[in-house]
Amino acid sequence: MGPARPLPGRALDCPRGGDFSCFSLRVPSQVKTFGPFGSGSQDNLTMYMDLADGIFLNQIMLQIDPRPTNQRINKHVNNDVNLRIQNLTILVRNIKTYYQATRIR
């Protein structure tokens, strides 16, 4: 089985080996469909850094699967790599839990 292919028109619809600018145009616009993030006047790198802290992505995951979790998201990351890793670890764990629960149904 080969790698998963993105659907046309989706956030990851960039040519194989595409550069950062391809993703920088698509991912923030797809994420914005879940609600506002950032100030709107930010450049793409700043928006990616806002996504990299894991706070907004965890909020999106709560919209997809609102079941409460016992894990607290670090709301004030302030470029602390360890806090980002904790937030993204929680996000990955919640995504795994969601897919395992939906696969069973």
From TrEMBL:
<dbReference type="GO" id="GO:0005737">
    <property type="term" value="C:cytoplasm"/>
</dbReference>
<dbReference type="GO" id="GO:0030705">
    <property type="term" value="P:cytoskeleton-dependent intracellular transport"/>
</dbReference>
<dbReference type="GO" id="GO:0051959">
    <property type="term" value="F:dynein light intermediate chain binding"/>
</dbReference>
<dbReference type="GO" id="GO:0031122">
    <property type="term" value="P:cytoplasmic microtubule organization"/>
</dbReference>
<dbReference type="GO" id="GO:0008017">
    <property type="term" value="F:microtubule binding"/>
</dbReference>
<dbReference type="InterPro" id="IPR036872">
    <property type="entry name" value="CH_dom_sf"/>
</dbReference>
<dbReference type="GO" id="GO:0005813">
    <property type="term" value="C:centrosome"/>
</dbReference>
<protein>
    <submittedName>
        <fullName>Coiled-coil domain containing 88C</fullName>
    </submittedName>
</protein>
